[in-house]
Amino acid sequence: MYKRSGLVSFTLTALALAVASERLNAADAVANTEHVEVVGQAASIDQALKEQRVSDSIKSVVHADGVAQLPDDNVAEAVQRLPGISVERDQGEGRFVSVRGLGPDLNSVTINGTLVPSPESERRAVALDVLPSELVQSLSVIKTLTPDMDANSLGGTVDVQSLSAFDHKGLFYTGSTEASYDKNTRQTSPKFSGAVSNRFSLGEGIDNFGVAAALSWQKRDFGSDNVETGGAWDFEQGARLNEFEMRDYDISRERAGGGLNFDYKPDDLSSYYLRTLYSRYKDSETRNAASLEFADPLAAGELGDTEAKRALKQREETQEIQSYVFGGERMFGLWTLSGQAGYSRSSEDSPAHIAGATFDGGDFADSGFYDKDKPRPIIGAGFYDANNYTLDKVDWEKQNTKDTEKNLRLDLARDYDLNGYAAQLKFGGKVSRRNKDNDLEAWVYEDFDDLGFTDEQLNLGQLQKGRVDYRLGRFGPGISGSGIRQLIGGLNPADFYDATESRVNDFSMREDINAGYLMNTLDIDDWRFIAGLRYEGTEFEAKGTGATDGQFSDTETKRRYHHWLPGLHARYQLDKNTQVRAAWTKSVVRPTFGQLAPGFVIDDDEATFGNPDLKPLESSNLDLGIEHYMGHAGTVSAFVFYKDIQNFVYNTDVAGTGAWADFAEAHTFANGDSAKLYGLELAYSQKFDWLPAPWNGLLVGANTTFSRSSADIEGFDAASGVNRKRNINLPNQSDTVGNLMLGWEDDTLSLRLSANYKSAYLYELASINDKAHDLHVDSQTFVDFSARYALTKDLQVSFEAQNLTDESYFVYTGHRSYNAQYEEYGPTYKLGLTFTHF
After folding, report:
1. What is the CATH number of the domain that holds 507?
2. Who has the most CB within 10 Å: 262, 292, 317, 334?
3. Pairing mode of beta strands 795-802, 828-837
4. Is 660 helix (H, G, I), strand (E, B) or coil?
């Protein structure tokens, strides 16, 4: 606590010193005040709109402001302000990005033009909270792909551009310090960041070589409070509950990142660059849980026999992303040659940790629950007494995942005249090599009585760590992780090794893609056309292990497939400020690595397995829209879009069919026939600088996306013995997503109040005939406020308040009344100082 309060003191002291320094020299203060300017909201929006306006693709952009900082804490939260974008949150922080209603695994992320692989073992999606916002100069969400772009996204590609020395004139540097306060845990956390860039003269050139560097470090202590049923409702008996669990999360999250970039422009005909980025994200999590399992399903307020348990999960997880991109461009008369070599590596490392330590608390009579959406226990005082719980089992795990992508791209373009109209022919190719490996090791410690442990050693009273601070009600004792580790530390791990869990979850996958394209751009009066064809050939290999009633066997799958992907783009300039866009494109996305997993487990008449033979998802996309630009930071636009998706993937139970005819359960993944997605995207932004003061500082931004989806799935219904079909919405697709921003700024002060809304969406499918147990995420509205004040032309103080309305995360089972998961985070407040010279 001393260090945390010390940081607050440091921030406030620095602020006081800055103000005092200004007062000591009044004359200088007056002079400086005349030149103070907050380069903030309007300038950032205006830069973004200029980039959108000239783009050949339909895309949305977020630009860093004059101090090279995005307007939000991490990349995911900055992107969510754009039309058609929604964010999946974890522990209250934005993580994964959905584009136009399509889930994060159906979109791609690139850094400086090269693909970012996912550090998580089962996913393709990249959690963008790994990237600190200070390392980023701009973010683009590209929604229509031209043939010279990778075709690996159905919703869009999130492209991250890091800082370049050519983003500023001459010497630029900035440094920030920040203290954030988490109301839920009452913890204060530090953050420091900085960036510097400059240009130098090499050879006969002037300011032709640029160097830019950025660093960021943040340590955030926070947590959340949770209660969840996991969907364990018995609707056949009138909405009765089988079990529920209360969870308390205590998390320490450390982010560190750095980038070092070089640009060289020896003459007007050539340019070269090297972009490097490293980001490290470390989570230390302690999760205490207390659960009630009812002997018979109970309705709210009804009492019966209950089994009580407590559990601990304590782990440390480190995710790293490295990206290195070298490229350049050279003009030879009417020809332009460009190329790029990229290397990216993502990893997730979870050293040996407590994956679950479970304590049995015995049976309680006359117990139950109340409140169906946030279940609370009705139970005797003994439920909260640590001495009533005995250690039953410890799950011990370690895991390491690596995902590496290497690519080489070469493009050649030639400008030419076609009957008096400017045209360009462009062609090229790209090779990429991706390898993903996962290694999980698991141990299960149980039957402690047979190992010679005494009842006293196994009693939670001896392994207790204080009382859990739980906002949702009374919780009881916490569990000591160090005590658990000490208890099992003297045992031989080899005696408790879980071979099935360890071997089945190990895999190695290789994905090699060879691509080539040809496209032509033609300008005819006020029209601009782009037509082309892209080819992508994929070689896929997956190696793993299967387990059949405890017997292991190696598995290997090799596949080749090809895609021809045409595209046509058109842009028409109605007048100097208004343009119409249209695009017809085709794109492809490979299934996630979890869906393609080669491992399987067969235990008697039950089976669980991945499906390496899944087909890639293919989409035909139509986009049509109009954009009108209005002065500084002003625009209004409307776009309609339609996607016809083939081979979408869903989870299913194939028991009773084919090779699984005699099985009671056989859970895997299958391709659906087709899915449809269509919608309307509206956006508006305006700086009211023509109004009289103080209204000339007013800035308004709003966007909303209305979308609908439809997909048919089928599966075997064991109860009736027939195949059934049903229609669903695409998972992760919200019918309505919207943003509203009200801002005001002048030369010294900048204010912003923003709200982000996302309607409910389907999260997880139940069995084919059990729609009542589908899981849905409820609608969410997050409200944030930020303020910046320029003390001098170089020094700025800032204040931010996030999640002002204390929005929760709620997953329900079939109907809004029935909990699957409820979690609260509380608001966060930040105070910071930024010194900038440019």
Report:
1. 2.40.170.20
2. 292
3. antiparallel
4. helix
Report the alpha-carbon distance of residue 785 to residue 802 in Å, rounded: 7
Cα–Cα dist 75/825, whole Å = 20
Would the pLDDT of 730 be above 50?
Answer: yes
Q: 479: closest CA among 396, 398, 389, 397?
A: 389
Residue 614 inside a domain? The answer is yes
Map 265-324 to HEC letters.
Answer: EEECCEEEEEEEEEEEEEEEEEEEEEEEEEEEEECCCCCEEEEEEEEEEEEEEEEEEEEE
Please give the pLDDT value at position 554: 95
Q: List, in sequence order, the alpha helices (H) in 372-513.
A: 455-458, 481-488, 499-504
The Cα 232–Cα 568 span in angstroms is: 49
Domain annotation covers residue 20: no
Provide the 3-class DSSP secondary structure of residue 457: helix
* End-to-end Cα spacing for the chain: 37
Q: Angle 121-127-133 (CA atoms, 0-180°, nearest 5)?
A: 145
**Residues in contact with 412: Cβ distance below 8 Å, sequence separation at least 6, in sequence order:** 335, 336, 337, 338, 426, 427, 428
Does 6 score more than 50 pLDDT?
Answer: no
**Residue 7 maps to a domain:** no
* Ranges 423-432, 519-528, 584-593, 644-653: which has the least confidence: 644-653
Distance CA 440, CA 459 (A): 30
Residue 152, domain extent: 36-837
**DSSP three-state, residue 31:** helix
Q: Give Cα 130 distance to the centre of its chain.
A: 8
C-alpha span between 139 and 828 (Å, rounded):
24
Q: Please check whether residue 771 lies inside any domain of the structure.
A: yes
Amino acid at 257: G
Domain total in the chain: 1
Q: Environment class of residue 375 by beta-carbon count within 10 Å: exposed (0-12), middle (13-18) or buried (19+)?
A: buried
